[in-house]
Design brief:
5-stranded antiparallel beta sheet, 27% helix, alpha+beta, Creatine Amidinohydrolase
Length: 257
């Protein structure tokens, strides 16, 4: 069942998503050559706890980290590790969130370590732009499929592919709620968007084919063909006056609807 938030619950969602966004930004700012993904994870966890919240990824379904940190051809669910050292030219997707007062935040961004090659940069730019287009379609009265189609059509027009195995979702008292928010589909299909819905829109875009595989650790998801992958995510509130991006702080002044 899709949960519609009341005014008090929406205020709690705004607060916890602001913390989630700031924690993601702190993790991104820590990226430099030589740092490990475990060190980035600790920075994020310390930030969340220092602001009175809990890292909602930690222990969820048994996940060991406070953030999923996925490098280059890792799509999502990268386990933080002292053995994974960031190198110049890497692209690093960080997905994290916080829980406070019974409600959850969730967001993701792909960062570059120094200068990356042109194709990697284009992949990141297209994925981020597809997120913004998905958000533009998140209007009361529209349907989930309108978001899905906006993301997929832009990504594929630019020669990349959207991951089909994993999708966005509702967010609230649970980190993962109904409805599912695929990054592919047809306009005019799926649940109707109504004010008070909170959804995580999160394009996961591959440089080559959309096929992915999960490694033997049960978590790490990689592209099957070794191509790069990028991941951007915002938690969005549906309002009568258009979408409200609850996690916009990680983009700062660069955010545009």
């Amino acid at each position: 069942m899709i949960q519609i938030k009341n005014a008090a619950e929406i205020e709690k969602m705004r607060r916890v998503n602001a913390i989630s966004a700031a924690a993601l930004k702190a993790g991104g700012e820590a990226i430099e050559a030589g740092i490990t993904t475990a060190e980035i994870d600790k920075i994020i966890e310390d930030f969340i706890r220092r602001h009175g919240a809990k890292p909602n990824f930690k222990g969820l379904y048994g996940f060991p980290g406070s953030a999923c940190i996925s490098v280059n051809d890792t799509v999502i669910h990268g386990i933080p590790s002292r053995k994974i050292v960031i190198r110049p030219g890497d692209i690093i997707s960080i997905d994290t969130g916080a829980k406070l007062d019974g409600f959850n935040g969730d967001n993701a961004c792909t960062f570059a370590c120094g200068k990356v090659d042109m194709e990697a940069q284009r992949l990141m730019d297209v994925t981020k732009a597809s997120l913004h287009l998905g958000i533009k379609a998140a209007l009361a009265g529209n349907r989930i499929g309108d978001i899905s189609h906006a993301v997929q059509s832009y990504v594929e027009e630019n020669g990349f592919s959207v991951v089909r195995t994993f999708v966005g979702h509702g967010v609230g008292k649970e980190l993962h709620e109904e409805p599912e928010v695929p990054n592919f589909g047809n306009p005019g299909r799926g649940p109707r968007l109504v004010p008070g819905m909170c959804i995580a829109i999160e394009p996961m875009v591959n440089q080559k084919h959309h096929a992915v595989k999960t490694l033997s650790d049960g978590w790490t998801v990689k592209t099957c063909d070794g191509g790069l992958s990028a991941h951007f995510e915002h938690t969005v509130l549906i309002t009568p006056n258009g979408p409200e991006v609850l996690t916009r702080d990680w983009e700062g002044a660069d955010f545009r609807l």
